[in-house]
Structure formats: structure tokens, C-alpha cells
């Protein structure tokens, strides 16, 4: 009998360990957001997010990070738009035009799965050396190109997952009614419309939060980004630079900037979630 | 020809062009990395580069061992922390948790995945580093600033939680109900069923998830750079500072122009990362794709 007791005890122990690790992992999220909230909130002010750095900003004088917020928004918006325009046709092509189950289809899917995992520092390094090679300096344009390359796999993979959820019968029915593949593709796009926004938001979130890719290619500037061939500030980089300062005031601003970035990301995530549940309802 | 067919063909051609273009860009990246690192490889034997432990670009010594070991250390630490936690948590989510809890936790994992690396770095600096230097290191009788491979490993572990959990949960959900029922009806406890049936069956998928986690950890730059100390030395314990490969590239890229072979060396570092991560991803994706086909 003691054997059974031992086994049941083990079962209880294991279950407790599992619950604990589950809680620990979920707790990390609240820990991270909580730490940033706790540290950043005291330093957050309207001035902080509405002004550009004034003279002496980096030794604790007046100013804000509006330049970085705007730069990040520009960068992320343009590169997400580009990545969507390139990514959607690619996934439509792989799904519609390539024979399903063929080598080409598998190879393409594998390629984008793998590309999804390539770290941004590699993209950044190679983009930087190409820029040096053809003689353009760090600029918004360089950043946009790098981030576009980074986000294309995200768009392709997400759209591909969405296309997979469409019942195959729908494809067969439309084909048998005499529509071309392009016409069917257009219908499919309408079908997955809420999902496309999800993909766009995912890509946008990745684009706005990336540092390693923009560190080398976009540079940094205290002015508002006006031209595409000039360096521009980005929010994550602003956090990174301010945090490495020894002056407490500047570090505090780094916490507040981190808080701003957290807000942006959380907004994106909530929108994504709402859209994803809409896509669920959208299903036939 | 019919106008509709022309449109169809037009779409086909242009989409194919986009696909080919994106493949070409990737090939170009690989070719670029290789050509850029050739000068270093010509000057020094590959084996010497990988095993040399002296890094002083001014004198022309490019030993990558400290950086490789830095990366290996933080990755190992993060795996030791993350793998048991993730396996336990995902088994719990699939086998024990109610549908409501699952619906609550899995989206939270997506939130964790969406948090940008720099915020993880900020968290590491504000939370992990002080805790390490003030509470944990003194227990072991070590005096440290907290900027160590241990801190890097902890931050990385949290960063690879989401990808490992989401894949492990997916894999565990494909385990057929009959297998579990058979084991349970023979009188095994749930935990025995998990260790002796479910985990054995799910092993390839779990390994694939771990490998994906490793490749994520390998390439992570900013968060690790912020907490790792960045001293080019061979870390000997958890409480030594380390200097992972991606941090090397990020820290030194702007200033490399004047020193001969320096940019070549950094490109070699990027190439090393690219090849390793490509390999890891390829392995795990192939395993996962096979599993998926089997499940269908």
C-alpha cells in the first residue's frame, strides 16, 4: 500500500511543480511590465513625450523623446507597409500558384520559417556593410530597408497560417465555377481580412521594437526626422543610450521611454488579440 | 487570350518575381558575408580563429573563443532555467489545465513574445542585475556587480519562454488520446503517464522546440549586451562577465574602419551566427514539419 501512497505523493509533487513553473512563467510578464511601470511612471511627463531634446538633454536638462517616438513610428509604418506589400503576394503565390505538396512549396515554406529565426543583428551588419560599400551613410532609408527584410518573413508566415485555415472545398468550388486563380486569391484575401491586420500588427510590433537592426543602419539624431536620407532617432535606441548614461535624471528618462514603448506594444497586442477573435468569428 | 487569364498570368509572374527577389536577397546576404570574411580566413587559419583566446584587433589577434564561450555560457544558463520550466508548464497546460486557463495563459505568452528585446534589457538592468549582486552572489560568497553571464542567462531564459511553450503545447496536443487512456487504464498515475508515455512520444517535438529556443538565444543581441558585462574573457563561473558574439558585432561595428581585418573579423562573427542559426532552425523546422505531416 505504501507503494501506491508514494506514487500518489509523487503525482501531487509533480503537479505542484508544474503549477509553480506555470505561475513563474506567466508571472515574468507581469514582473517585467510591473518593473517598468514602477520605475518609469514617476519620470513620465507630457513634456517628455511632446518635445525634442534641447541643449544639454543628455546631462539631464530639458527636452523629451518626441524625435525618437516619431522616428520609430515612421520607420515601423513604412517598413511594415513595404513588408506587407511584398509578403502577401509571396504567400498567395506559394499557396495558389505553386502545386501543393510539391518540392517548391515545401522549400519556400521552410525558407521563410528559417528566415524568421535569423537575428536582426545579422541583417543589420550586412545592410551596414552594403551601405558603406555603396557609400550611403546611416539613414532612415537604411533602417527601413533592414527592417523590411526583417519583417517580410513574419508577414509571409502569418498569412500562410491564415490561408491554411481556409477550407480546401472553397478553393475547389470556386475553381469549378470557372474562376481563375487570381480571382480565387482575391476572394481568399477578403476571407482572411481581419487576419491580415493581425499579421500587419505583428510585423509592426517587431519593427518598432527592434534595436540590433537599426543600431547600425539608422544612426541617431536629436532632430525630428524630416528627410529619408538623414539619420533618425528610434525609441528603443533612445532607451538604450539613455540607460547607459551615469546621470540619474537621464536614466529616469530611459525608464519613462521604456514605459512609452511598453504602452505602444501593449496597445498593438490588444488590437491583435481583438482582431484575432474577430477572425475566429469570421470563419464559415 | 481572355483578359481574365491575362490578369491571372500577370499576377503569377509578378508574385513569382517577388519570391525570387526575396530568395536572391538572402543568397546575396550569404555571399556578402562570405566574401567579407575571406580576408580574415586568408590571414589566419580557421582553427586558430575559432580557438584563439586573445582578442586585440590593434595587434591583429582575432581569437573568437571568448565570444563563442560567452555565447555558449549564456545559452546554456538560459536552457538550464527555461527547459524544465517550459516542459512542466506546457504539460500542465495541456494535461491538467482547464480550457479557460489555457485560453488565458496562451495569449499572455503572445504578449511576452511581443515585448521588444530592449525592454527585456531594461528589466534585466533594473531587476535581475541588482538581485544577483545584492542577494544571490553573497550567498555563494562572490562579490560581483551583477553584470554576469548568469544575468544574461536569466534574461534570455525569459525571452525564450514564449517560443518554447507555444511549440511544446502544440506538440503535446498532437499526442493521441488513446495512448494516454491506455496508460491510465493500466493503473498508472497521471504523472507516470506523462513521464513514461507522453514525454517519450513528444520527444522529437520537444527537442525541436529546444533547438528553436537555442537559435533564438544565440542571436539575441541587445538584451544580453545590456546585462552581460561585455568583457572579452573566458567565463569560468556563473558570476563572471561574458561577451557574446552578437554583442561583439553590435558594440564594435561603427568603429572598425581604420583597423585592418577588423571589419572582416566582425563579418566573420556575423557569418558564424548566420550559419549556426540557419542550421539550428533548419533542423528543428524539418522535425516539426515531419511531425505535422504525421499528425494530419
Automatic annotation (TrEMBL), chain A:
The record's keywords, sorted A to Z, are: Membrane, Transmembrane, Transmembrane helix, Transport
Q: Which domain of life is it from?
A: Bacteria
Q: Where in the cell is it found?
A: Cell membrane
Task: Give the chief site where it resides.
Answer: membrane
Q: Which family would the database say this protein is a member of?
A: Belongs to the binding-protein-dependent transport system permease family.
PANTHER family annotated for this entry? PHOSPHATE TRANSPORT SYSTEM PERMEASE PROTEIN PSTA
Q: What is this protein called?
A: Phosphate transport system permease protein
Q: Which organism is it from?
A: Sphingobacterium paludis
Its organism's taxonomic lineage begins at: Bacteria, Pseudomonadati, Bacteroidota, Sphingobacteriia, Sphingobacteriales
UniProtKB/TrEMBL annotation, chain B:
Tell me which Gene3D superfamilies the record gives: MetI-like
- Per the record's keyword annotation, is Iron-sulfur included, yes or no? no
Assigned keywords, A-Z:
Cell membrane, Membrane, Phosphate transport, Transmembrane, Transmembrane helix, Transport
- Chief location of this protein within or outside the cell: membrane
What membrane topology does the annotation report for this chain? Multi-pass membrane protein
* Classification via PROSITE patterns: ABC_TM1 (PS50928)
Q: Does the keyword Disulfide bond feature in the UniProt annotation?
A: no
Q: Which GO cellular component term is one of those annotated?
A: plasma membrane
All copies of the ABC transmembrane type-1 domain together span 68-284
Annotated TM spans? 67-94, 106-129, 149-172, 206-227, 265-288
An example Gene Ontology biological process: phosphate ion transport
UniProt subcellular location: Cell membrane
Question: Which terms does the record give in the GO molecular function aspect?
Answer: phosphate transmembrane transporter activity
Q: Which NCBIfam families match?
A: phosphate_pstC
Role this protein plays: Part of the binding-protein-dependent transport system for phosphate; probably responsible for the translocation of the substrate across the membrane.
Q: Which family does it belong to?
A: Belongs to the binding-protein-dependent transport system permease family. CysTW subfamily.
What this protein is called in its record is: Phosphate transport system permease protein
Amino acid at each position: 500500500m505504501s507503494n501506491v501512497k508514494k506514487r500518489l505523493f509523487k503525482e501531487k509533487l509533480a503537479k505542484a511543480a508544474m503549477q509553480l513553473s506555470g505561475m513563474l512563467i506567466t508571472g515574468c510578464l507581469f514582473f517585467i511590465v510591473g518593473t517598468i511601470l514602477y520605475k518609469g511612471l514617476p519620470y513620465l511627463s507630457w513634456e517628455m513625450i511632446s518635445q525634442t531634446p534641447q541643449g544639454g538633454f543628455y546631462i539631464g536638462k530639458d527636452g523629451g523623446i518626441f524625435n525618437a517616438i516619431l522616428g520609430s513610428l515612421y520607420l515601423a509604418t513604412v517598413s511594415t507597409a513595404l513588408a506587407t506589400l511584398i509578403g502577401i503576394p509571396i504567400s498567395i503565390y506559394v499557396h495558389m500558384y505553386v502545386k501543393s505538396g510539391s518540392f517548391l512549396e515545401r522549400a519556400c515554406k521552410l525558407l521563410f520559417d528559417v528566415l524568421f529565426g535569423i537575428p536582426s543583428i545579422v541583417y543589420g551588419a550586412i545592410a551596414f556593410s552594403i551601405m558603406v560599400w555603396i557609400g550611403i551613410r546611416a539613414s532612415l532609408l537604411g533602417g527601413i530597408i533592414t527592417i523590411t527584410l526583417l519583417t517580410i518573413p513574419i508577414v509571409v508566415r502569418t498569412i500562410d497560417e491564415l490561408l491554411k485555415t481556409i477550407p480546401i472545398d472553397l478553393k475547389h468550388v470556386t475553381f469549378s465555377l470557372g474562376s481563375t486563380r487570381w480571382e480565387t486569391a482575391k476572394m481568399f484575401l477578403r476571407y482572411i481580412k481581419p487576419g491580415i491586420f493581425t499579421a500587419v500588427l505583428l510585423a509592426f510590433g517587431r519593427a518598432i521594437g527592434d534595436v540590433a537592426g537599426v543600431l547600425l543602419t539608422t544612426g541617431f539624431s536629436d532632430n525630428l526626422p524630416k528627410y529619408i536620407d538623414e539619420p533618425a532617432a528610434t525609441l528603443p535606441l533612445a532607451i538604450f543610450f539613455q540607460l547607459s548614461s551615469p546621470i540619474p535624471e537621464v536614466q529616469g528618462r530611459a525608464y519613462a521611454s521604456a514605459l512609452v514603448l511598453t504602452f505602444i506594444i501593449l496597445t498593438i497586442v490588444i488590437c491583435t488579440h481583438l482582431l484575432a477573435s474577430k477572425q475566429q468569428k469570421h470563419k464559415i | 487570350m481572355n483578359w481574365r487569364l491575362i490578369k491571372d498570368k500577370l499576377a503569377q509572374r509578378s508574385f513569382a518575381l517577388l519570391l525570387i527577389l526575396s530568395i536572391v536577397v538572402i543568397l546575396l546576404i550569404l555571399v556578402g558575408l562570405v566574401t567579407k570574411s575571406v580576408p580574415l580566413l586568408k590571414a589566419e587559419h580557421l582553427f586558430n580563429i575559432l580557438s584563439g583566446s586573445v582578442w586585440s584587433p590593434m595587434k591583429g589577434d582575432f581569437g573568437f573563443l571568448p565570444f563563442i564561450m560567452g555565447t555558449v555560457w549564456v545559452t546554456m544558463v538560459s536552457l538550464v532555467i527555461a527547459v524544465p520550466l517550459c516542459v512542466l508548464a506546457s504539460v500542465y497546460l495541456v494535461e491538467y489545465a482547464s480550457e479557460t486557463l489555457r485560453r488565458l495563459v496562451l495569449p499572455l505568452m503572445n504578449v511576452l513574445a511581443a515585448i521588444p528585446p530592449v525592454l527585456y534589457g531594461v528589466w534585466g538592468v533594473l531587476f535581475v542585475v541588482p538581485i544577483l549582486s545584492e542577494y544571490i552572489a553573497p550567498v555563494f560568497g562572490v562579490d560581483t556587480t551583477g553584470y554576469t553571464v548568469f544575468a544574461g542567462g536569466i534574461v534570455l531564459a525569459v525571452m525564450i519562454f514564449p517560443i518554447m511553450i507555444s511549440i511544446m503545447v502544440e506538440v503535446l496536443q498532437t499526442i493521441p488520446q488513446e495512448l494516454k487512456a491506455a496508460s491510465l487504464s493500466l493503473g498508472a498515475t497521471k504523472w507516470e503517464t506523462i513521464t513514461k508515455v507522453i514525454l517519450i512520444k513528444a520527444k522529437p517535438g520537444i527537442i525541436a522546440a529546444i533547438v528553436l529556443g537555442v537559435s533564438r538565444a544565440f542571436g539575441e543581441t541587445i538584451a544580453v549586451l545590456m546585462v552581460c558585462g561585455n568583457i572579452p574573457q573566458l567565463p569560468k563561473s556563473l558570476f563572471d562577465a561574458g561577451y557574446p558574439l552578437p554583442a561583439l558585432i553590435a558594440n564594435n561595428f561603427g568603429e572598425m574602419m581604420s583597423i585592418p581585418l577588423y571589419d572582416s573579423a566582425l563579418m566573420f562573427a556575423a557569418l558564424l551566427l548566420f550559419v549556426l542559426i540557419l542550421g539550428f532552425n533548419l533542423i528543428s523546422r524539418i522535425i516539426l514539419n515531419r511531425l505535422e505531416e504525421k499528425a494530419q
